[in-house]
Amino acid sequence: MENNIKLSICIPTYNRANYLKQCLETLIPQVKNRKDVEVIIGDNFSSDNTNEVIMSFKTSDVQIRNFRNNENIGYTGNQIKCFENASGRYIAILCDDDVYLDGEVEEILTVISKRDYAYIALNYYSFFYNYKRPYKVDFAPEKDIIFEKALNILNYPTVGHYSAIVLNAKLAKKYLAELIGQGKHLKAEKSRGIITGLYIRLLAKTDLPAYFIGKRKLAARIPEELDYDLLRHLCVDHYDMYYEFYKDGLISREDLNFRIGLILAMLPKAIIKDLHKLDDKEVKRITKKLIADLKYYSSFKFISLPLLFLGRFKTIRYFYRLISFLVDIKRKIIRKIKG
Fold this sequence. Notes:
Helix content is 47%, strand content 16%. By secondary structure, it is α/β, with parallel strands linked by helices. α2 (50-57) links the parallel β2 (37-43) and β3.
């Protein structure tokens, strides 16, 4: 039987039924009566009413395929199963708390109907509770761009956001098998699972171009709480991940320096936010690791390193905790106002 599916929209989910409901409320009207789009929902053994929400959207005029894992197989494991279940020519990744605005699916289908691409990136804005009330908007210009050399899209604004990724399915499955074969899926970053390692390989090894869709048709939720921390996962782990990409010849030194620049900009905030949560042994380990990785960068030497050294003292970490607490209060007030 011929497969006519052009786009598989994969939604890994776990215990976020309310968010998933909002996600599907905006997505499903865009795919009704379409034989060329399917929605794949991977339920990672949720204990809430996730299955009830999914079933409420399953009708004869919508191609929804869902599975429920017999146990929680982890963030990366659930992503891999979504990829394995997808049958479309392209695979879009959509986080269960984000929203495809009206017309996003049509935008993607229009792009993939004109030419083969390795990677398509979506523009977006952020929101707190109500996706109709944008918070930050100007991440990237509303202008479509073709990157004939796909890897050149890597450092373009918004590229890499979890829900803003659409991958050529044939290439994605090829490099997913490569990652799994090398055991590198076991080291997948906590904040995005296997996705970053997958699309970096795809961009670096393909001859196909990449495309950026400029219209802001994706609303990305700013989470109330993170299930990872800035210091260890978005600073230490990110450095290790991108340095490994560089060593493997997947990205250039310029690409690596761009990522290091982002880490250096985030690091002072991350130290104040997360260092107080760690014990003395972990503080020493992270300090030693960051010195080894970043000691030649002036912003690290004169800003982050003093914060790390001061953070060796518990009294200073209590002070960091107070600052973090006050920042959280400010953030909650902003959320309340901006809603």
